[in-house]
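To the wet lab folks,

You asked to see what we're planning to order before we commit. Fair enough. Below is the target structure as tokens, and below that is the sequence we designed to fit it. If anything looks off to you, flag it before the synthesis order goes out.
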């Protein structure tokens, strides 16, 4: 039988559950931005607390504002530079294509198309078919308009969403900097109440893993972009600085840099620079990609105090499950699981 207090207790539990579900539903669309803001705060908190804040006389609001302004410069200035370079490249591409649209294709394709392995002859035959008929060219252009329009709309949507997410990240980071001491005390206090010494150890492990992963990502991106820029300059690739910036950003995702140096090698091949194309392909495969495949896991593992296997599995699995933020979440989750498993095994077998 239910006592008089049990219905009241059940109602309280149901109310708490509904409140938790409601909070999760409200915050769910912003989980990625909130976690990314937390990652930025964790990685820069020591510098802010020990170097920036004392020089400002402990004025946390001013310090938080300056840190957010610095993040805006770091995140937005390269993005604006890339957008301008891409717009300029699009203008050059339009100028290059316009004569073919207005006057039609030449009767014979460039020699390098026929030299393409496996598909060269098929491409030459297709070129002859399109060049011999204005109607075929118009049909080809019409077929390309709809996919291009959809791609541009999708790219615009992604860019708009990215800007909104970035604005939210900067907004949240401001309050994390301003109230950082309170947030840190709450994290450690909650961990201490839930798990005692183990809870504090989990928080420290998560923090160390995030710092190590960030060190590996940023360090590898800087090393790859620097090495790639040298190769682009040597091979004579177009806009080597822009390609280096693109390499820096794409190095943060798996199989990103090969899209840059591979595309540059294809461009050189199309310009008749077969030797430089082969050089850049080998340079990218043996040097640029080796940094990503070898240096990144080592930097992450050393920074986080984990094995290379755990970090590699965490990064790739996290990206597949959570997207970009999974680069940080995957290793953190595996690190915490590894820590709990090791502690449990040690307690189960004291010898």
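Sequence we intend to order:
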């Amino acid at each position: 039988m239910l006592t008089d207090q049990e219905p009241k207790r059940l109602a309280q539990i149901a109310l708490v559950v509904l409140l938790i579900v409601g909070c999760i539903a409200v915050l769910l669309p912003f989980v990625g931005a909130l976690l990314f803001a937390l990652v930025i705060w964790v990685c820069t908190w020591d510098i802010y607390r020990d170097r920036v804040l004392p020089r400002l006389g402990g004025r946390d609001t001013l310090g938080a504002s300056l840190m957010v302004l610095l993040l805006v410069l770091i995140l937005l200035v390269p993005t604006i530079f890339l957008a301008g370079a891409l717009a300029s490249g699009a203008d050059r591409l339009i100028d290059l294509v316009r004569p073919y649209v207005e006057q039609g294709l030449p009767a014979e394709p460039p020699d390098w198309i026929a030299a393409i392995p496996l598909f060269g002859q098929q491409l030459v035959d297709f070129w002859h078919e399109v060049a011999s008929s204005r109607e075929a060219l118009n049909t080809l252009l019409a077929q390309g308009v709809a996919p291009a329009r959809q791609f541009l709309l999708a790219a615009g949507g992604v860019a708009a969403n990215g800007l909104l997410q970035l604005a939210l990240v900067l907004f949240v980071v401001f309050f994390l900097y301003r109230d950082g001491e309170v947030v840190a005390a709450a994290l450690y206090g909650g961990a201490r109440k839930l798990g005692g010494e183990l809870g504090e150890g989990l928080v420290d492990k998560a923090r160390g893993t995030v710092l190590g992963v960030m060190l590996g990502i940023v360090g590898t991106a800087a090393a790859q972009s620097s090495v790639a820029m040298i190769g682009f300059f040597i091979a004579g690739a177009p806009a080597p600085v822009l390609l280096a910036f693109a390499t820096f950003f794409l190095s943060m995702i798996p199989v990103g840099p090969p899209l840059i140096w591979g595309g540059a090698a294809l461009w050189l091949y199309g310009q008749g620079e077969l030797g430089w194309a082969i050089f850049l392909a080998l340079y990218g495969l043996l040097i640029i990609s080796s940094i990503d495949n070898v240096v990144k896991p080592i930097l992450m593992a050393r920074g986080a105090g984990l094995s290379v296997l755990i970090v590699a599995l965490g990064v790739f699995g996290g990206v597949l499950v959570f997207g970009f933020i999974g680069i940080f979440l995957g290793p953190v989750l595996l690190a915490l699981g590894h820590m709990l498993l090791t502690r449990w095994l040690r307690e189960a077998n004291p010898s």
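Structural context that might help your review: The two ends are 49 Å apart (CA to CA). The chain has a mean pLDDT of 75.

Thanks,
Computational group
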